[in-house]
UniProtKB/TrEMBL annotation:
Domain annotation PTS EIIC type-1: ranges: 3-424
CDD domains named in the record: PTS_IIB_glc (cd00212)
Annotated membrane topology: Multi-pass membrane protein
Active site: 461 (phosphocysteine intermediate)
Keyword flag tRNA processing: no
Species this protein is from: Candidatus Lachnoclostridium stercorigallinarum
Gene3D superfamilies xrefs: Glucose permease domain IIB
Record GO cellular component, one term: plasma membrane
Name of this chain's protein: PTS transporter subunit EIIC
Compartment annotation: Cell membrane
Length: 518
């Protein structure tokens, strides 16, 4: 049972690499262009305000943002494709339909119960506009649910038989119909649970102004990102009394952001109110900078060092992209999503480390920030502004980075967490792979497995072909070795793993093409 569970977790983790692989490079583009169109960047570098340059940057950002505006949809399709065994096309199709139905079902519930918020304040109550539908912001979790349901329904009902009168709706067509029903029920159930969660978060806001407040705001933001509730969490102290009330020049400002904006952009470091900055910024960008500038490089290095040596070239490119995406664009999801669903415990530890770092910044009276947490923001609001105590920020950040690296490295190795590059044993290179003779490899594999008739399903992970066969006795192990594979495993009856290394996807494509032609 435990072995089967571990295999399922590994498979689920692999499915997340598809959307993450798209998010990482797109996020880097969006982050860079987004940083260069900020008003404070234009103020300091006037050339960015040139109409042609500005329009180009804004246009690129808008095009790239469509990916991040629809992260749940990416996860729905990716999970459905990766988890289904029988008909991946139907699974992906059904996941999209199911996700859309869930969105509108949640919208219907919100309208029927009078909980549909005004668009101007919907983010403050955990709602969002998705594909033109105002609904609950459950972020990637909603897409993952839709993908898992679609994969299950596909494998379970793709060959469903019905009475003759309903035969048109049988088989593959039934999968989407079943998903519609299930997701509609989930769509009107989730908001009922969500309202209690939101109410609980609101009551917790009384702790924000305590000395331990930065721990809860920083750790809470990380913890709620997978559920899409971080915007609600942040809004509690940024725009309500939960973040305090501040009297500046006789005017009362409610929440952190209005007060911070007035002091940072209007009054400046020479103002008597600049002394308020450490109490305001402790909830803002400097918390995010701990992630993007220090924790993320440490996490990426830990994942790289703990990955199998033969997988490191692929892991290296992914990790660099994820770090740069966060460092330049304040986009953290690609790296966080690479391990949050694989090891929630490790993610909680990560959130706590960031929370403790935020408390340390508060006690050191660091005063860096506005909202974003990129390296540009550090340079502008940390280095260029006075009295920010940026040296203490760097010292605390470096300590946090070292701690994060060793905690992640130990945890990954001790509990054998299947982070990118650790899904399978390392594979060795070979002549056929080096020469990219994928067609030749495919011919050998198919013949060694007993021909097309004995092959029931072909799949792959980061290094292995994973194939279901009809009769395991027909497999010729010696012939398989001629393909240049570096390992052959039988983890389950009628199921074989063939290790080819990082280029296995091209081998799998060649196998699929040969099977179609036969």
């Amino acid at each position: 049972m435990l072995k089967k569970y571990n295999q399922s977790i590994q498979k689920f983790g692999r499915t997340l690499l598809l959307p993450i692989g798209v998010m990482a490079p797109v996020g880097m583009v969006m982050g860079i262009t987004g940083a260069f169109v900020q008003s404070y960047m234009i103020e300091r570098f006037p050339i960015l305000g040139n109409p042609i340059i500005n329009t180009t940057l804004v246009s690129i950002r808008s095009i790239a943002s469509i990916v991040f505006d629809n992260i749940p949809l990416l996860f729905a399709m990716g999970v459905a494709y990766g988890m289904s065994k029988k008909d991946k096309g139907i699974a992906v199709f059904s996941s999209v339909i199911g996700y859309l139905v869930m969105l509108i079902a949640m919208n219907v519930w919100l309208q029927a119960t009078g909980n549909l918020a005004d668009p101007d304040v919907m983010s403050q109550v955990g709602q969002i506009q998705v594909l033109g539908i105002q609904t609950l912001n459950i972020n990637a979790l909603g897409g993952i649910i839709a993908g898992l349901i679609a994969a299950w329904a596909t494998d379970r009902f793709h060959n469903l038989q019905l009475p003759v009168a309903f035969a048109f709706f049988a088989g593959k067509k039934s999968v989407s119909i079943i998903c519609i029903g299930i997701m509609a029920l989930l769509g009107v159930t989730i908001p009922w649970v969500w309202q209690f969660l939101v109410a609980g978060l609101t009551k917790l806001s009384v702790i924000f102004l305590s000395p331990a407040g930065p721990f809860f705001t920083a750790a809470g933001e990380r913890a709620f990102i997978p559920f899409g509730l971080h915007h609600l969490w942040n809004s509690l102290f940024r725009f309500t009394e939960a973040g305090g009330t501040y009297v500046i020049n006789g005017e009362t400002y409610v929440g952190v952001v209005p007060a911070l904006t007035e002091i940072l952009f209007n009054l400046g470091p020479s103002s008597e109110y600049w002394d308020l900055m450490p109490s305001l910024t402790r909830f803002m960008a400097q918390q995010q900078m701990l992630c993007t500038m220090f924790a993320f490089p440490a996490i990426a290095l830990a994942m790289y060092r703990t990955s199998y040596k033969e997988n490191r070239p692929l892991v290296k490119s992914l990790m660099i992209t994820c770090v740069v995406t966060a460092l330049l664009g304040n986009v953290t999801e690609p790296l966080e999503f690479s391990f949050v669903f694989i090891s929630p415990v490790l993610y909680i530890i990560y959130a706590c480390i960031i929370g403790l770092g935020a408390v340390a910044l508060s006690f050191a009276h660091v005063a860096i920030g506005y909202i974003r947490g990129t390296i540009f923001d550090f340079a502008i609001f940390g280095l260029l502004y006075e009295k920010t105590n940026w040296i203490a920020f760097l010292i605390i950040g470096l300590i946090l980075s070292v701690v994060t690296y060793f905690v992640f490295k130990w945890f990954i190795l001790h509990f054998d967490i299947k982070t990118p590059g650790r899904e399978d044993a390392p594979s060795l290179d070979n002549t056929l792979i080096r020469e990219k003779q994928y067609d030749k490899i495919a011919e050998i594999v198919i013949d060694a497995l007993g021909g097309k008739g004995n092959i029931k399903n072909v799949d792959n992970c980061i290094t292995r072909l994973r194939i279901d066969v009809g009769d395991i006795k027909l497999i010729d192990n010696e012939k398989l070795k001629q393909s240049g594979c570096s390992g052959i495993f039988f983890p389950a009856p009628q199921h074989i793993h063939i290790v080819f290394g990082p280029m296995v996807e091209f081998v799998r494509n060649a196998v699929d093409e040969h099977l179609e032609k036969m």
